[in-house]
Amino acid sequence: MPAVKKIIKESGFYSNGVVSDKVKDRGNDPYFVKKTEEAKEFLLKNPLPEHLKK
Amino acid sequence: MNLKSYPCLIKNDYLDYEFYSEGPNGRIKKAVRFTRMTHEEPIFYNLGFGDVSQETDLIDDNIVSNNDDRDIVLATVAKTVIDFTNIHGNHYVFATGSTSSRTRLYQMGISGLWEEISKDFKVLGFVKGDWQPFQKNVNYEAFLVKRK
Q1: What's the complex ipTM?
Q2: Is there a contact between B50 and A5 if contact means CB atoms under 8 Å apart?
């Protein structure tokens, strides 16, 4: 069974991606989990000011 | 954004990406992961990025790949942001290095490719307690990126 499902072609954008069912779900990777928690803490302490939200 | 980049494999939910860095240190698998952090507007996602260990298939922060392809890797990661935001919406993407030296590497990379990156992205940097529009030659602690 081919691993490649489809090739993305987005006019006006520059995607060079190929959707594949071989790509691992890394949502539970310890490093990514840790980095996300750190990012949340960082944004809680240092929120984006309103004048920069556009 | 017209920059040389590596071909990328994308998981069908567009949250996970994989590509290979090629250089003097061989072929190194890299992964990008977008993780949602907030559920109220504005929505923020964390951009996680790292080298995949051949032994464990997990991200190993201790790998120093040094494949002399910083700009190509950065362009590849930038394009994952394009693909991600095409599907999930134009949300803020937060990014920082695992160490201050790596964050500095990202900052140098963004500066070096600023002319192209700024065409498609608004970039904010955090420095000395404040968020501000990205400027070259400023050592930021973290970045927020949004599609224009």
Answers
A1: 0.89
A2: no
